[in-house]
Structure formats: C-alpha cells, structure tokens
Amino acid sequence: MAKALDLEEQEQLDQIKHFWKRYGNLISWMLIAVMGSYAAWNGYQYWQRDQAGKASVMFDEVERAVTSGDLARVERSFADMKDKFGATHYAHQAALLAAKSLQTQGKSDASRAALSWVAESAPDSAYRDIARLRLSALLLDAGSNDEALSQLTRPFTPAMQGLAEDLRGDVLKAQSKNSEAAAAYQLAWQQLADSADYRRLVEAKLNALGMDPQTASSASVKGASK
Questions:
Q1: Cα(first)–Cα(last) distance of the chain, in Å?
Q2: How deeply is 162 buried, as exposed, middle or buried, from its count of CB atoms within 10 A (0-12, 13-18, 19+)?
Q3: What Cα–Cα distance (Å) separates residue 115 from each residue in 129, 167, 174, 177, 213?
Q4: pLDDT in tens, 189-204
Q5: What are phi and psi of 90, to 5 degrees?
C-alpha cells in the first residue's frame, strides 16, 4: 500500500515538475508584472498625495498674494504654481483666483491668459466651464464679440448651459442680432428653471426685446405637439 502511495506521489511530483518546466517562466513573469504594477500604483498614489499637499501650500500663497493686493506677487506665485503643479486642481483654482485679481487691477491680457489656460487644460469640466464663461464676459467687455462667441459654441455641462445661453444672448445683442439673441435668452430662461432670481433677469432681457418667455414657451410646446 505504501509503495502504491509512493508511486502515486512520485507521478504527481513528475506532473508538477513537467508543468513548472513548461509554464514556470510564464507564471514568474506574470507574478513580477502584477507585483510591479501594484508597487507602481502605490508609488503613484503616494506621488499624487505629495503633489496635492505641496500644491495646497502654494495655493495658500496665491490666495495671500491676492488678499494683499500685491500684483507682482500674484503673478509670480501663480506662474510658479502653474509651472510646478499645473496638473492639479489647486493650480486651476489658483488661476481662477489670480485672473479675477489681475482683471480688477487692469491686467486684462494676463487675466484672459490665465482663464484660457484653465479653459483648455483643466481636467474638471466645472473649472473649464467657469473659465470659459468668465473669459467670454471679458471678451464681450473688450468688444471682441466673435472671440466671445467662439468660447460659447462648445457644449457646456447641463448645470452651466443656461448661463452660457444667457451670455451668448448678450454677445448677439451687442452685435445687433436681436432675433438670435432672443432665441438664446429663451433657451437660457428654459434651462434656468431652478434659478428664480437669474431667470427673472433673463426674462427682463426678453421683455426688452419685445418677447414674453411664457408665451414663447407655450407656443413652442404647441408647435411640437402638432
């Protein structure tokens, strides 16, 4: 009985040796790849936390510079942050903050440059939308209506679409395209149903163009039902 068991064990051992000889290298490399990926993931997570911590400290510096009104310091600290931590959310927050301060102090070109950077490079759609809306408003104030419209033609997130349509109406009205402006305002009025105060402002703009948004909306619904 013992010899039979020994023979059976020897056969199993031979099978294991054969299997390992055939697939051992492949299994070893797979384990190395898995362990390497895990180590790399842990390293990346640590790097991200380290970057976020350093970026947070630098964001505080930008914020202090803005609060103090030191324009040179604002530009210097923001440029430093953009260079070192441009991929972080803190950098895009700092850009929005710096852009407002730069515009307030008459540095319109620098303000628009900061907003353009956020609009083009921010990974978060909310930051991109805010930057594009503010950039469009600045371009409208500067009389660059075509450039302002170009910022508003691309899709916005649903939460921002109503604001974008309202601003598009302002730009079109500045170009004396009143019928197109009214259409944009009407869309804004429909999409701002949850913002009563802002909706009243849009309604006033429509009234100034001789339109009642309630009537226009009802007519649109009736037309769609036919």
A1: 91
A2: buried
A3: 10, 16, 22, 27, 33
A4: 999 988 889 899 999 9
A5: -60, -35
Distance, CA of 51 to CA of 53 (rounded, Å) = 5
How many whole angstroms separate alpha carbon 54 and alpha carbon 56? 5
Nearest of 118, 196, 208 to residue 169 by alpha carbon:
208
CA–centroid distance for 116 within its chain: 12
The chain-wide mean pLDDT, for the chain, equals: 82
**Cα separation of 4 and 68, whole Å?**
89
* pLDDT of 64: 92
Burial of 54 (0-12, 13-18, 19+ CB in 10 A): middle
**Span 121-146, mean pLDDT?**
94
Tell me what percent of the chain is helix, strand and coil, each rounded to the nearest 5: 85, 0, 15
pTM of structure: 0.73
Give 50-103 pLDDT, tens digit per residue.
Answer: 566 788 888 899 999 999 989 999 999 999 989 988 888 889 999 999 999 999
Residue 118: C-alpha distances to residues 83, 90, 139 (Å): 14, 11, 16
Q: Are 61 and 91 in contact (CB under 8 A)?
A: no
Q: What's the confidence (pLDDT) of residue 11?
A: 66
The single residue listed with the structure tokens 């510079």 is 65
String of b and e for 64-87 (b: at least 16 CB within 10 Å)? ebbeeeebeebbebbeebbeebee
Q: Helix crossing, 213-225 with 178-191: angle to 10°?
A: 80
